[in-house]
Design brief:
The structure is a single chain. The protein has helices at 3-43, 80-104, 113-124, 130-150, 152-165, 170-185, and strands at residues 48-52, 62-65, 167-169. The protein is mainly alpha-helical. It has one domain: Methane Monooxygenase Hydroxylase, Chain G, domain 1 (Up-down Bundle). The mean pLDDT is 86. The structure holds zinc ion (ZN).
Length: 206
């Protein structure tokens, strides 16, 4: 083999290696985005069926939320539980973009446009004016950034698990979350759990 041919081969191999590295980083970016949605859903006590980085025709990954109960519809329900669900779902929508940004260091506005549109749509049920909508969305963004910062280790662990498992069911994602929390806080037993926010409708505090 001539030196030239050898060099060509080496270059081709390097570019293949470069492509594989870029592909791996791209997958991890998607995994962080989806893990952001999933961890926010766990923290906000919103159930989801599964989280995946298996691409479809129109998405690189997804975190499939469970359906809203029939008796709770933002179109006409104004009870506290519905309002809390809406706000939690907005946080879950925003957490994908923010977790991805924490990993990659840049805003992927295009990739998260669908999430942000859905968040704005949900937020519009909860405000009375455009001015309030803008302020509310800004506050939710800051709140979600805080959540992603606090749970960055849980998000990182779930993202890494997604790289190997590709699709993770909601129950298993919650186990991964709790295991990470136990090691983070040095807790041995299964005493740690995410405390769901309890909102009881029409009941006085006892
Ligand atoms: Zn998303």
């Amino acid at each position: 083999m001539s030196t030239l041919a050898y060099n060509e081969r080496a270059e081709r191999y390097q570019s293949l290696e470069g492509r594989q590295q870029r592909r791996g980083r791209e997958l991890l970016r998607v995994a962080y985005h989806e893990a952001g949605h999933a961890v926010a859903a766990i923290v906000e006590n919103r159930s989801f069926r599964s989280v995946t980085i298996v691409p479809t025709e129109d998405a690189l990954g997804s975190c499939s939320a469970s359906r809203w109960p029939r008796n709770s519809n933002p179109e006409y329900s104004t009870d506290l539980l519905t309002l809390k669900r809406l706000e939690s779902d907005i946080i879950v929508f925003l957490a994908g973009h923010i977790a991805e940004k924490h990993f990659s260091g840049r805003n992927n506005w295009v990739g998260s446009s669908h999430d942000r549109r859905a968040a704005a749509d949900y937020a519009s049920y909860l405000v009375g004016s455009d001015e309030e909508l803008a302020a509310y969305q800004e506050w939710l963004w800051i709140r979600t950034e805080g959540l992603v910062r606090v749970y960055q280790q849980e998000i990182a662990t779930l993202a890494t698990s997604l790289l190997t498992e590709k699709t993770i069911q909601g129950k298993r994602a919650r186990e991964i979350f709790l295991t990470t929390q136990r090691s983070k806080f040095g807790i041995q037993s299964a005493t740690l759990d995410v405390k769901p926010l309890k909102i009881r409708e029409g009941q006085p505090d006892d």
